[in-house]
Amino acid sequence: MRKTRAVSTDWRSEIERSGYYPGLVTDAVAAALGSESADAFVVHHEATFDPAMEMRRHITVLLLTATRLVVCHTDEHPATEGADRPQASTTTDAIRLDNIQSVALTRVVTDPANHVAGTLPAELVLNISLSVNWGAVAHVDLEPAACADETCEADHGYTGAITAEPLTLRVSQAADGPEAVATMLNFASVLAEAASG
């Protein structure tokens, strides 16, 4: 029997519930969304530690509309010399659905031999590959260029390929709760269907 879970339909209340600069994040998302409504969304609030072992928080909001994938990412920055108050930077991007090359979802299941169909996985990793380099992060693979003449000793420079880094989000029941996993499952399903059409 398939277990169903309720998935929130209000991205504003999920941003508010995260407690992470809700006014700032809501303004940025609303501006990027414009007059469109979200068919599905994910709000992912996460804490990381920098090399100085200071906690840094960030939030990523993904919204799927009829025409676009809207990505909003907000980071906080501590007070620095000359700036006595912390700051936050928010980046939004609206990506046309035809720029989505693939949607990959990895499911991690505990005790797979006893897994019951329809039960939520312990963890999910969503990878969205785009034909545009949305985050200015890419892999560059270079190798020496050669010509067809096997005896040629000339320097032909380099040849290579640049591939965009995928957009990746990870949620787990242990860290984020079952509702976050259910929301990510729903979002990935709706996004994969929209991107294939």
Keywords:
197 residues; globular; 9 strands; 39% strand; alpha+beta; disordered N terminus; 4 helices; single chain
Rg, Cα atoms, Å: 21 Å
Estimate what percentage of residues fall within beta strands: 35-45%
Q: Output mean pLDDT.
A: 84
**Low-confidence segments, ≥5 residues, pLDDT <50?**
1-6, 134-139
What portion of residues is helical? 10-25%
Q: What's the multimeric state?
A: single chain
Number of E-state strands? 9
Summarize the biggest pleated sheet.
Answer: 4 strands, antiparallel
Question: Which structural class do you get from the secondary structure elements?
Answer: alpha+beta
Count of alpha and pi helical runs: 4
Q: Which shape, going by the Cα principal axes?
A: globular
Order of strands, widest sheet: 1-2-3-4
Q: From N to C, what is the helix and strand string?
A: HHEEEEEEEEEHH
Termini separation comes to 30 Å
